Amino acid sequence: MSWRGSTTFPDRIFACLPYLLPLIEVFAFGQFFLNDFPLLKLIFLPLLPLLRIYSGIPYAGMIIFFALWLLVVRNEKISHFIRFNTMQAIILDIVIFLCSILTDIVKFVPGSGFAMQTLYTTIFMGIVAAVVYCVAQSLMGKYAEIPAISDAVYMQVR
Predict the structure, then answer these.
(1) Among 2, 51, 99, 156, which residue carries the largest CB count within 10 Å?
(2) Alpha-helical regions (H) of 27-79
(3) Please, what sign has the CA dihedral across residues 156, 19, 63, 75?
(4) Contact 144, 85 (CB under 8 A)
(5) Phi-psi category of residue 99: left, alpha or beta, with phi > 0 → left and psi -120 to 50 → alpha
(6) Which residues of 27-63 are buried (b: 16+ CB within 10 A; e: fewer)?
(7) Where are the alpha helices (DSSP H) in the chain?
(8) Cβ contacts of residue 117 below 8 Å, gap of 6+?
(9) Which residues, at least 6 apart from 15, have a Cβ–Cβ distance to it below 8 Å?
(10) How far apart are CA 115 and CA 6, in angstroms?
(11) Half-sphere exposure (Cβ direction) of 151: Cα atoms closer than 13 Å
């Protein structure tokens, strides 16, 4: 949906940056998948410095979450396109958090090793696919529509 006006090239780039948050958060779920396909680790190699910084700062996820929420999503001086994509990245991050709660519960079930690997891989691939789709749409200047998630974004971003 591009009915809110045209987007400039800097807007497109800034709209892609918040998607680094869910990409870094979901990296922990990729351990089984990346061990099975070690060549794909090369794709995530540029994220390693960010991962080290992110994991080195206590409560970095929460700080970034609230900074994006308060400084970008709630700031109506910033274009709707950037605020929409920022909120969508935040909701993807919330989905990852909810999935981590689910995996913590499944860990208590005896003999759930294969189920855990499948769950981790599914979460990892789903979030990575969503991030790739959103970044590609943002670079083209289009609103990335993900069912249910985009509806929640539209409720938050005016």
Answers:
(1) 99
(2) 31-36, 48-56, 60-68
(3) negative
(4) yes
(5) alpha
(6) bebbeebbeeeeeeeeeeeeeeeeeeebeeeeeebee
(7) 9-16, 20-26, 31-36, 48-56, 60-68, 80-106, 113-139, 149-156
(8) 32
(9) 7, 81, 82, 84, 85, 86, 138
(10) 45
(11) 2
Q: Which pair of structure tokens corresponds to residue 15?
A: 């709209």
Q: What is the pTM of this model?
A: 0.91
Express each pLDDT in 95-130 by its tens digit.
Answer: 999 999 999 998 888 888 898 999 999 999 999 999
The tally of CA atoms less than 13 A away on the side-chain side of residue 41 is 11
Contact between 81 and 11 (Cβ < 8 Å): yes
**Of 9, 20, 14, which is closest to residue 90 (Cα–Cα)?**
20
Cα pseudo-dihedral 131, 134, 138, 140, rounded to 10:
110
Quick one: pLDDT at residue 1?
Answer: 46
The single residue listed with the structure tokens 């998607």 is 19
